[in-house]
User: Fold this.
Amino acid sequence: MACPSNGTYRRFMEESMLMSPSEGAPCTLPPPFDPPSLQAFSEKKAHSTWQVEMMENEYWQKVNKDNDKNKNMSKPL
Assistant:
């Protein structure tokens, strides 16, 4: 091993070190999406993004409302 490591880190590096080349083929990619599947995936992703944006907007509206409420309470009469 080329790097000077000790202890647990060295043991993990030694355990993960390859001793010989793999006999199997490298990873295989899944087949490409057919058009309806790609459309469904795209719509699901867009809907999920929209949901997250709505939750973010609700959060920031609540934070801003709470901040405005606290500012009004701290003003002297």
About this structure: Helices lie at 7-16, 35-74. The mean pLDDT is 85. DSSP finds two helices and no strands in the chain. The radius of gyration is 27 Å.
